[in-house]
Amino acid sequence: MVKRWLPWVLKGGISLGLISWVLSKIDPAAAWDQAKGMDIGLLLLAVGLMVAQILLGAVRWALVLRALSAPFHWVQTFSVYYIGVFFSIVLPGAVGGDAVRMWFARRNGLTLTTAVNSVALERAVTVFALVLLVCLSEPVLVMRLPDLPGIWVFPALLAVCVLGILTLAALDRLPQRWLRWRVMRALAVLAEDTRKLFFHPGFSLGTIVVALVGHANLSLVVYCLAVGLGLNVHVLDCLVLVPPVILIMTLPISIAGWGVRETAMVTAFSFVGLPASSTLVLSILFGMVSMLTALPGGLVFLMAGGRKMSEEELAAEAAENR
Q1: How large is the average pLDDT for residues 164-189?
Q2: Which residues contact 3 (CB under 8 A, 6 or more apart)?
Q3: Cβ–Cβ < 8 Å for 271, 149
Q4: Residue 313, Cβ neighbours under 10 Å: how many?
Q5: pLDDT at 322 over 90
Q6: Other C-beta atoms lying within 10 Å of the C-beta of residue 100
Q7: DSSP state, 149?
Q8: CA–CA separation, 190 vs 134, rounded Å?
Q9: Quick one: pLDDT at residue 315?
Q10: What CA–CA distance (Å, rounded) separates 264 from 270?
Q11: Any bridge partners for residue 92, and if so which?
Q12: Sequence-distant contacts of 97-106: CB under 8 A, at least 24 apart
């Protein structure tokens, strides 16, 4: 019981603590008045773009599965991916959604190794493309904010990502005697799958491009919401400031990014003169749009056998307690 609830308590505490800290810096009444003036048309456009984001994520995973020669139909790919999106907002940290996606992928016919490796590599491509986008947009960021500190961080992080991918791809070059351990054999298969994806230009470039489009699309979601709130923000500001915020949100230290997103967004947009109260409203709206578009994944989960999954978990837990 402690193991089950401890992540919720810790990450929930971080989310509540960060949100409380941001709220202490603003006028809640003014923030609420601004939220009530949201343009409904632009809000609906943001929702539409977020739905497109889910489709882009499914396409990204489908490309990874194709690189691994996994026999997964498009409908299965979209359904399982959408289920993972749903659980990423109801479980503490994004990795919960990935674990559920692996479970359902295995249940729908993939081998356990392919299910785990495809999700892990899709996550790796997503993070790599995000860091790459930040680095590509950095000249624009420096031009608009010449005194911005720490501009070396993201190029260094990109180098770390490249080194990490190369390391993954070489894990099966380890001494053969190490392969007697199951975990080392699994890492050797992961190395082979990494080369199939990243060392094949047709697969790697296509997957990275889709990932880049997805990250840019999230920036457009924020821009639509900002314009709908009447904020004086340029589209370039969103294109260069939102990706670092999304990158920070990938850290599994809060529940669905709440608190971390608000703190990061308030900090980022303060560089372009946006008031903290306005940015907080923008961040909360972004989170609510994300939740709204992710919730139908719960229906997909039930239609795909979610009740049976719950029964199996309860049976396994009962057997463990005995």
Answers
A1: 86
A2: none
A3: no
A4: 11
A5: no
A6: 24
A7: S
A8: 27
A9: 45
A10: 10
A11: 255
A12: 98/123, 103/309, 104/79, 104/80, 104/304, 105/72, 105/80
User: Does pLDDT of 280 surpass 90?
Assistant: no
For every residue of 266-312, DSSP letters joined together read HHHHHTTT--HHHHHHHHHHHHHHHHHHHTHHHHHHHHTTHHHHHHH
What's the CA gap between 128 and 145, in Å, rounded? Answer: 24
User: The tokens of 16 are what?
Assistant: 């509540």
Locate 286 and state its tokens.
Answer: 């972004």
Q: What phi and psi values does residue 108 have, to the nearest 5 degrees?
A: -90, 15
Q: Tell me how crowded residue 147 is: count the other CB atoms within 10 A of its CB.
A: 6
Q: Which residue has the higher pLDDT, 309 or 203?
A: 203
Using alpha carbons only, give the angle 189, 190, 191 rounded to the nearest 5 degrees: 90
Q: Rounding to the nearest 10 degrees, give the CA dihedral for residues 59, 84, 42, 30.
A: -150
pLDDT of residue 95: 62
Dist. CA 74–CA 63, nearest whole Å: 10
Token pair 């989170």 is found at 287
- The one-letter amino acid code at 161 reads C
Cα separation, 98 vs 251, whole angstroms: 14
What the block records as the tokens of 183 is 């975990």
| Amino acid making up residue 255 | I
* 269 and 244 Cβ atoms separated by less than 8 Å: no
DSSP 255: B
Question: How big is the chain, counted in residues?
Answer: 322
- Looking at the DSSP bridge assignments, the partners of residue 255 are 92
The Cβ of residue 192 has, within 10 Å, a number of other Cβ atoms equal to 13
Q: Where are the alpha helices (DSSP H) in the chain?
A: 2-23, 28-36, 40-67, 74-90, 95-107, 112-144, 153-169, 182-198, 201-228, 235-249, 260-270, 276-294, 296-303, 306-321
Choice between 150 and 113, residue whose per-residue pLDDT is larger: 113
Amino acid, res. 162: V
